[in-house]
Amino acid sequence: MNKIEKSWYKPIGLLNIALLPLSGLFWLVSNVRKVLFKLGIKSSYKAPAPVLIVGNIGIGGNGKTPFVLWLVPYLQSLGLKVAVISRGYGSNPPHTPYHVTEESSAAQAGDEPLLIFKRLGCDIVIGGDRQASIEYLIEHNEPDIIVSDDGLQHYQLARDIEICIIDNERRFGNGLLLPSGPLRELPSRLKSVDLAVYNGSVKEDGYSLCTSGFFSVKTGQRAQEYPSKGIAVSAIGNPSRFEKSLQANGVTITQNKHFADHHMYSEQDFEAYTKQPVFMTEKDAVKCQSFAKDNWYFLRVDAVPSEALIEKLHCLLEKKGIIGHGI
User: Fold this and answer.
1) What CA–CA distance (Å, rounded) separates 292 from 198?
2) 63 a known binding residue?
3) Using one digit for the tens of pLDDT, what is the confidence trace for 23-50?
């Protein structure tokens, strides 16, 4: 994290106050844009299939991807054909819309879309033009429902269900809008979403993140044995959560190496760690598999929602007519 990002999760200081005029401008531009969509001056695209958005009001490290990795199979278990769209932050596809395949690289698809594809094998299309991505999916795959990975603030896309993921530990930081704080919208936005879901909460509207073993970065196979200590490398929004999970699984961290969220790794990033064991997240691993060493491991993490949250989601899908009653 840089100095500004670190200040978001501390009591409000001089740096945050100095940035308030920019936060005010951010609020003005964002709200004018929302009003234009609300009044119909700017038009929204209504997809022919239901759209479910999983997003957040803050930036980075909210645990959104693990929830999507649980949500897609859950929707499939209800008999729905599910496809995913993503902006593909940090990606460089040869064209857009870009359909992620087995041949896709992390550089082409982006880390999170490639992780979703590798884990689930579902149809996932990336591109900044979400309408074009949806039209591609409708033409080629005919999904029953489309899950938008992020895009809560993308009001150009009409949505049937909004799910907002909140980090139960960090919550809203100092509660200020960018760049004085970590928020893209104020907490009052939660009143209008269909479900506000707390990552790390055991309460009814939450889910926990549970580790499910270490895997080889090189092969993707579960590691039956792994070292008891090594270097923790991560390029995620909240590296401390990952490092705590490593320690909880018996790994002694000899050194931490943090990169910016979505950093696209190269072999040069690891030149200083040629012989030492390296531990990383699954999101990091998809970007390192092509040059990984035998002693590199990733810790897999799965979202485990409360029964009450599953029930709320099921009722919401019935209410919106996405599934029939009794399914």
Assistant:
1) 34
2) yes
3) 999 999 999 999 999 898 999 999 999 9
